[in-house]
């Protein structure tokens, strides 16, 4: 079986983006789509690699706020918390 010379392996290429407004964690993605979360700790070798590479991270973008649920959605959620469907609740209320 042939041995791979580590000099023949190309260095990994990553893209970076901040995961929070405080810039405490980076999301690092490689060319295959693999993701790693890198804390901004100087003792972390992945963060040290980021700093020494001269790479930049995309700005943090806050997720959009979710709309307020409708009354019907709230009721359905409450019923599901009790393992009930709307039909089961209506049947229980109309039972004699």
List the helices and strands and how they pair.
Layout: E1 14-18, E2 25-30, E3 35-39, H1 45-53, E4 57-58, H2 71-81, H3 86-94
Parallel strand pairs: 1-4
Antiparallel strand pairs: 1-2, 2-3
Name the descriptors.
96 residues, alpha+beta, four-stranded mixed β-sheet, 3 helices, rod-shaped
Description of the molecule:
The chain is α+β, with helices and mostly antiparallel strands. The chain contains 3 helices and 4 strands; from the N terminus they run βββαβαα. It has a 4-stranded mixed sheet with strand order 3-2-1-4, with no helix packed on it. Helices cover 30% and strands 19% of the residues. The chain has 2 domains: 47 residues, no CATH class; 30 residues, no CATH class.
Number of domains: 2
H/E series, N to C? EEEHEHH
Question: Tally of extended strands?
Answer: 4
Structural class: alpha+beta
Overall helicity: 25-40%
Low-confidence stretches: none
Ends distance: 79 Å
Mean pLDDT equals 87
What is the general shape? rod-shaped
Largest sheet: 4 strands, mixed
Describe, in short, the structure shown.
The protein is an alpha+beta fold and 96 residues long.
